[in-house]
Design brief:
CATH architecture of the domain at 72-217: Sandwich
Oligomer: single chain
Radius of gyration: 36 Å
Structural class: mainly beta
Strand content: 25-35%
CATH superfamily of the domain at 72-217: Galactose-binding domain-like
């Protein structure tokens, strides 16, 4: 049997000449700026620099119609000097003032201050609780239905931040007390209060001085009272 040989030739025209790589054109002009979006919620700042109370050291002199300036007063309260004051300061007029608040049985003082939810506050003060006086220092929230000052019977059930000074020093000596307070959601006002719930007794007086209510942190997404 004879051999069959056949060659196949592919014409060179099937493969064109090499093409140069594609060139990328210049970037087009920037399009017009879109409309401005809605403004977001205003951020809350808990500035830790300011004692938010008015007359916190009780060194502003009393007036005839206002025995404790800056504070709401109920009952037997007044400003007193040495030896019943803890500390003082020099006033803007150059006068030396060494005064404290004196709260007799059944008396109280309070002050309403603006606050922001989620902020943490430090509440501190100096106190000298005499004889059978029973001093309660508290921070309540009227927005939540709390009293200003709150009733003693509601402090525990409503989880109202409070502290009851116990005097372990001889009389006429001040001790320092501190309480950390969290501002609950929806609250814009706090009531800082001192009340002497003693029902009577000779000399059952509480002296309070050098009060600080100062934001120290936050805002936090959530917080709880722990005192």
């Amino acid at each position: 049997m004879s051999k069959f040989n056949k060659k196949f030739h592919i014409p060179c025209e099937c493969f064109g000449p090499p093409l140069p790589p594609p060139e990328i054109g210049p970037t087009g002009p920037t399009g017009p700026t879109g409309p401005t979006g809605a403004t977001g919620a205003t951020a809350v700042a808990c500035c830790p620099c300011t004692n938010v109370l008015d007359n916190p050291g009780f060194d502003e002199p009393p007036l005839v119609t206002d025995p404790v300036p800056g504070w709401n007063q109920i009952g037997d309260v007044e400003e007193v000097g040495v030896p019943n004051a803890h500390s003082g300061r020099i006033l803007s007029n150059g006068a030396l003032s060494l005064l404290a608040a004196s709260i007799g049985p059944g008396g109280s003082i309070n002050q309403l201050v603006d606050v922001d939810e989620g902020c943490c506050f430090t509440f501190s003060f100096a106190a000298d609780v005499r004889d059978n006086a029973f001093l309660i220092a508290s921070v309540s929230f009227p927005d939540l239905g709390h009293g200003c000052p709150p009733l003693a019977a509601t402090l525990g059930p409503l989880n109202i931040p409070h502290i009851i000074p116990v005097m372990n020093q001889p009389q006429s000596l001040f001790q320092h007390y501190t309480l950390v307070v969290c501002i609950p959601p929806g609250v814009t006002t706090a009531c800082v209060a001192f009340q002497n719930i003693a029902t009577g007794g000779q000399g059952a007086t509480a002296f309070v001085d050098n009060v600080v209510f100062q934001p120290t942190g936050g805002p936090c997404t959530s917080c709880s009272q722990n005192f």
